[in-house]
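Each record in this resource describes a single protein on a pair of labelled lines. An example record follows, reproduced without changes.
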Amino acid sequence: MRLAIGRISDGELEFAEKICSFARDIYRELTLVVPHMDDSSDMKTKMDTMLQSVMKIEN
């Protein structure tokens, strides 16, 4: 997230878009795996954090 926001500040929008796309792809793939994990796993919290990061990059 910080890398993408830094690139946006530097005017490197294409690179920031690639980072955002990569983060979205990771999030999308992990949403398939996380439901099969134990409820005690903190992965669900990490997924919430990742979604917030993707949203920050997009905005």
